[in-house]
Amino acid sequence: MALAATIRNVEQLEDLLSEPTPEVAQALGRLEGDLIVLGVAGKMGPSLARMARRASDLAGTRRRIIGVARFSSAGLEPELQRHGIETIRCDLLDEEAVQRLPDAPNVLHLAGMKFGAAGQESLTWAMNTHLPAIVCRRFARSRIVAFSTGNVYGLVPATGGGSVETDSPAPVGEYAMSCLGRERVLEHFSRTLATRVVLVRLNYACDLRYGVLVDLARKVLTGTPIDLGMGWFNTIWQGDANAMTLRCFGHVTSPPLTLNVTGPELLSVREMCEKLGELLGRQPGFTGTESPTALLSNARRAFGLFGQPQVSADRLLAWVAAWLQQGGPTLNKPTRFEASDGRF
Q1: Which of 97, 164, 163 has its CA nearest to residue 135?
Q2: Which of 6, 49, 59, 278 could make an SS bond with 29 (beta carbons 3.0 to 4.6 A apart)?
Q3: With contact defined as beta carbons under 8 Å apart, do 107 and 144 qualify?
Q4: How far apart are the C-alpha atoms of 140 and 190, rounded to whole Å?
């Protein structure tokens, strides 16, 4: 993939986010059967579905790519259809409706709840722990790649390299606890029904409309003081996360394989904001001091399977700064990565 110096508009951004690598095309060429994307209307669903479509076409593999969601936002459904993705409207908490979904040997389980979880705890638990049971019963014989989150880990020393998959979970707050619940439900059905699963602990994906770097850049632009309490973080370009996620279908197992997916860099909030300040022509302001611990993931297991991400943190930083300078749209969904109390 030839990396552009800047990304000019949403169309170019979506093209880059959904551009499959040769390895993704090869993986989708080896994969048998249709692919259904549950929760396709979320932040990553559209570009993931489109990458699967493009990779399958490149490989010369005929398959249906089916996107399932409530589609409460206008415009997304026809856009997906324009790119060769079938769509089905469905409330995934409606078990009878899920039973009517078409069979698919490959399932991307993206549906879940984070934003707005505080104050809607019962819905958060229903989406993150009850829904996986519905999905596993319906697609017991399918390969399932399911999103989880690095939030299932506790805070770790910033100098320690980040949490690895064999570390004991230590979730803080109901959102993180419900995500660990999602993993346990998927593991239960994987073990009892022999369903092959990969659990993707993502931490944190970023395109140019959302992500930790977007949150920080907006604060630098507006002169909002940046809290240094959570002084370190990981991030990964969403296109790289998409590519790794689709390649996970070649590694599904029972019991599930768990993979951290994030970038290789340990990033300092202070240093990233100072770099953003240089790019944006603003002087960042800070409050507080860096804690010795942070929510950090180590993705060396995924890198061993898939190689390093194509987009570095510095490249992504430059893209974000240029995007916001030119007035590019954002989703207005802060990650709240700085929260240490688990409330989202």
Answers
A1: 97
A2: 59
A3: yes
A4: 8
Q: What is the SS3 assignment for 323?
A: helix
pLDDT in tens, 96-110: 999 999 999 999 999
Partner residues linked to 227 by β-bridges: 287
342, amino acid identity: G
Work out the widest C-alpha separation in the chain, in whole angstroms: 57
Strand partners, 145: 108, 198
Nearest-CA neighbor of 238 among 309, 296, 304, 336?
309
Domains and their CATH numbers in the chain: 10-211+235-267+294-312 (3.40.50.720)
Q: At what angle do helices 313-325 and 212-222 cross, to 10 degrees?
A: 50
Assign 335 a pLDDT band (cuts: 50, 70, 90): confident
Instruction: Summarize pLDDT for 206-229 with one digit per residue, the tens.
Output: 999 999 999 999 999 999 999 999
Peptide bond before residue 210 is cis, with ω within 30 degrees of 0 = no
Distance CA 65, CA 125 (A): 28
